[in-house]
Amino acid sequence: MASTSSDNRQRKKSFIIRRQAREMAKHVLSMCEEEKRSNHFTFTVNQALDRAVYYTGLSKSVLSKIKKEPTDQQGHLKSPSKKGKKYPRVKDLNVDDFDRQVIHRCIEEFYLTKKVVPTCKKLLLALREKIDFPWGVTSLRKLLKQMGYKWQKCHSKRRILIERPNIIYARSIYLRKIRQFRQNDRQIFFLDETWIDNNLTYKKCWRDDKINAILTDTSSSNRLILVHAGSRSGFLDGAKLLFKAGTVTGDYHGQMNNVNFEKWANEMLLPNLPSNSVVVMDNAPYHSVQENKVPTKSSTKQVMLDWLTKNKVQASFSMRKVELYDLIQQNRTPEKTFKMDELIKGHGHDVLRLPPYMCDLNPIELAWAKVKRLVREHNITSDFSLVRLKEVTENAITQVTTADWCGYDKHVLALEEHYWKKDGLMEDVVDSFIIEVREESDDSTSNSSSTDNSDFDSD
Length: 459
Prior knowledge:
The protein is an alpha+beta fold. The chain has helices at 2-12, 19-38, 48-56, 60-68, 97-114, 120-128, 137-146, 165-183, 258-269, 301-310, 321-331, 339-345, 364-378, 386-398, 402-443, 445-452, and strands spanning 149-155, 158-163, 188-197, 200-202, 215-217, 223-231, 234-235, 241-244, 278-281, 350-353.
């Protein structure tokens, strides 16, 4: 009885041989039987690696890697990780503005050239032929959402990828307004901020044929913040602001915020702008501090009362917040107003906001690319002192010529025409796809659920 129970315990401890191990064992046995039939060994004893390849059926590289793998105290190899390849979280996706515009144009190509609705899988394959995009379908889908795209539900689970209507609307309004300003021969000035480091690396950025190198900012001990404005005639005289980032003393406090930006606009931009100019800027937070910001439902009662008093609406502290909020909704303006816009308009100029995700429509981005390239050409060892970095940057700014700015302006004009035409075409094509999808879905509902799943596959 004792020996029987011992055998049972030993039998319970036996391990399960997985499919791959069983296949390898079967391969080894068949090779041994073949050598038995031929009555000689295929490889000599000295050909150890060749013999192992022959018996196991694995490649030499695989066996060499296995040979180098560490073992535990019992001499067993560790099991490989089942987690698979790790992809960065969506918030860590390093997709620059250049690549985002490639994605935008790739979607246009699906609709206008290929005449098909892009799925995430198809779009991912197309993108990997154009740019370095190491992430998967799930990350691409979340990136598209960040870029202002959504899936339009047509019927049941059938969906097509479209740009959000408010994004298209903002771009259409911008293109219409800037076209009108150009036709009226108004002077248009584009403003922006950038960073200049004592350590720069090459990377993609918006450029034209005259710029043969493109750079991006990297971390460094010395960093400058550059704020400027320019038009097709060149940088605006007297509007340049260049100061060290990270400092806590001086007129500017080491970063560009709404206080510093307003100070720059009052002291450097507005005094030097020609009369009746147009100022174009993006929607950075420090550009977009709201004037007379409307309280929300979660605002305190005092904030609500202050807003109502400022807007000459009668209210008392005895009123409940829901009553105060109703008064606010009745007396608010339909559109947001920004403090910077009102400041610039107060000096007789017009303000135009770039549409979301459209940094390529700002020609000053091309000027930044040339400035950074020139800094890099003089920075052989990437260890400029702050004084030297500022000196080289000042010199680089002067080398962005009027001819360069004319080229940048022509490049942006061509882009404006491209977007104007493509948006008009996309409206009709997307509408036709929505109608076709609806009709197909009405004819055969069963097919809709099977074909749509391709848009929602995981990485």
